[in-house]
Amino acid sequence: MPTKQESISEVKPGGLSMKKSLKVLWLIMMVLIISMSSVVFSQGTSEASTTGPLKIGYIGALSGNSATMGEPARLGMVIAFEEMNAKGGINGRPVELIALDDEANPAKSVTQANKLVQQDKVVAAIGGPNSGTALANRQVFFEANIPELVSISTMDDIINPDHPSFKTTFRLSASESYLIKTLANHMLQKGYKKVGIIADTSAYGQTATKTIQKWFAEFGIPISKIVNHEVSASDLTSQILQLKNAGSDAVFIYNLGPDAALTLKTIKQFGWDVPVVGARGLNMQSFIDLAGSFGDGIIIPSDINMNKPAIKEFKEKYDAKYGPTSNYLFSAMGYESAKILFEALRISKGKGGDDLINALEGIKNHPTILGQQDATITFSAKNHEAAQAKWNVLLELKNGEFVIYDEFPFER
Amino acid sequence: MNDIALLIIAGLSSGSIYGIIALAFTLIYNSTKIVNFAQGSLLMSGAMFSYYFLEYKQMPVVLAVVLVIVATSLLGLLLKTLIVDPLHKKKAELFNIIIATLAVSIVLEQLFSIFMGKRQFRVPSLIEGDPIKLGGNVMVFPETIILIVVTAFCVFCFWFLLNKTALGRAIQAIGFNREAAKLAGLKTSKLIAITFMLSAAISGIGGLIVSPIMGASPYMGVALGVKGFAACILGGMGNPFAGFVGGVIIGLAESFSSFYISSTYSPVFSYLILLVMLIVKPSGLWPEKGGD
To answer: For the residues of A133-186, what is the DSSP string, one character each?
Structure first.
């Protein structure tokens, strides 16, 4: 029987000889060096062309768990692009969507942003559902002076007036603070005195926990206990037991899909009858399916009000193209992101850079399919958040469907 | 008292999930020395098939269970004939084969996400019902009981198979010394195919009992595979009990440290146990018996 030593030195009949594998190694190294240098040397040569189609990039998770948000957003954008091209485009130029998958990975997101800037020479970009990726890729667009409209991700820090990237970064979605304040108001009205918080240990859950603590302190809502768990937890007994033993009179859950379903199931397992509120991210069919009857009664905020005529109209377009679905939140956000950029491009006459940034900042009281019945979008030099007032509604899960709980939650 | 009982059940439940993956690892490792990194993804396949047959096709439970096990076994056979065999023929290093299993895990993940969707699916429990009262305030869902009992039963069956049957001894013999086993007249290729199928079947069963608790998603495999591998390292690769016990130790460490110390850092404690184990007794609690 051959020893290890022998089999290593042996030239394998079907494999590569030493010389050949060295050649392959060299080739791989050369490719790596060239691809890296192209990133370095091609900085600053990112002028968007002035003829041909107006290219708009989209970077979002089109695979992985976050694709449940990123992919519907893309589907919504496709509708908006088709509509615009049917109308003859902007300034006589057709619009073109270039959607790239970042797999919710910040490093990949930067690579894709570079590709959009260098290779595709996009005039504007739409950011996707993940906060980590938005934080990473906004820098690329800032350096190229290309405005990025973040469609779904909520982390407060993405729109930070003290950060240089503020100049080029805009957001359509309500921020995390806005969403949490909506829920805090609801809990204040309900008079909860001991709110237990459960969050996952990802950046999503942990930054939210800090935001919850901040606003609950401001609103004077006492927190009974904060517990955490890994993403894709296999058991949450210990966490729920701690919230229950702390005497919580309401539970705020900040996790997603299967984890949120397991949280609700464990609460039921203990026979614990406690009101539960959750994050916007639960507005997904997968959560509704996974939670089943355990999910009934949970209250979450949303950026769309399905009673609003504009969103009903969007729903009809979506259904006609893709067939009915259970949730239009993320597709509507994708659609609206594209529409806002089109409006700004119309004002800038198809020009990018500072012209487009100024055009975006000039958008005032613009009607939107998102938000409450009479919500509008206003950007300014100092404000890059679309969701300012009259935005969130509250939904309640009833018999496997999120229905309007409060169309006009009190805002402060 | 109730709290402690609940925490023990929680630890056993998580531990069974890690344990059933560890069991699948142990089987292939004992006959081929291959650490099959596609193990987590095979469990994911089991979970996705469970969704497909039980929820999507609404098949009767017994038929669905059989189909899930058959489908994952076939995946195991494909893994052996399409990936491992050709690499063996080319006299690839063991290391290369192990890396190939990692590639298989990525391919499986992508295939399921393309054909079944990039989302999480609900899978019903094999026996659905309200929580069962075990005394005091201790209530447990039937799926948790199924998870623990079925895993323990699988572990026992494989212990019996490996140690008390001719087939099991033959499988172990191949692990000790494949050339010698061949010379002794054992059909090594066929026997290895059987271990791959058995290991994949175990993953299928794992998918059936884990998915009612965690849901099914194309991306669930890798994280579970890592935990199962940790259970293997802790328990040792020596026998089917080893990985299960390793899994239960990790599960209990997680549930108790999360309750009494910190829910944020509970994974740290379980990996700390693993680290200490690697320093003190790197071969695990039940080391594998010598081979070539």
So the answer is: HHHHHHHHHHHTT--EEE-S---GGGS-TTSGGGGTEEE-SPPHHHHHHHHHHH
